[in-house]
Amino acid sequence: xxxxxxxxxxxxxxxxxxxxxxxxxxxxxxxxxxxxxxxxxxxxxxxxxxxxxxxxxxxxxxxxxxxxxxxxxxxxxxxxxxxxxxxxxxxxxxxxxxxxxxxxxxxxxxxxxxxxxxxxxxxxxxxxxxxxxxxxxxxxxxxxxxxxxxxxxxxxxxxxxxxxxxxxxxxxxxxxxxxxxxxxxxxxxxxxxxxxxxxxxxxxxxxxxxxxxxxxxxxxxxxxxxxxxxxxxxxxxxxxxxxxxxxxxxxxxxx
Length: 255
Description:
With 255 residues, this protein is mostly helical. Helix content is 78%, strand content 0%.
């Protein structure tokens, strides 16, 4: 397995997700569904590692991708000019994708997947709501919330199909990537809702936001490389691919 095979696998999954949620009008005004290729990569790691991956697992993975697309559509609504046609259609796109994954789940009759994803969606929304609450939270509590937001649904998928060994890898990886995006956005002078609450928690703890976030990223990458190295269940080429993802991120951060 090489980088081309991995990219082709991700591209194939994206195509299958797009085919399940295509809608001409929505695509005209909102574009194709927003899909994070990093999330898709980690969603596919068990498959790339040679785990049992039949049609049921494939369809479940596609459904997880559609759920993320629906949530991303709602997450990307701009606070300003939210009544424009494009913004209204973005809301409708999220609702449409939601309807599609409920329809697919209903047709599949996969009650366990329905239950797991429903729990995952509820938990993710609860963590997102916390950023609007007045309660003070520690940085570690925010890291836990970000972990759930970024990887909770994938973890639910892994739990259902006995891929639990992969959860620490996906959780640390996607938390790291989200913190890097938040820090990069902050450095450009743009403040997201999440970076605002992280900065407030850092100030409340008496530490500098930039230092503590960068230290956390370095810590996570060190831990992640160790987890990957010690994971005896990973095939050599998959282990190398995972390490390459971390090291590429390190190079990007240092550069």
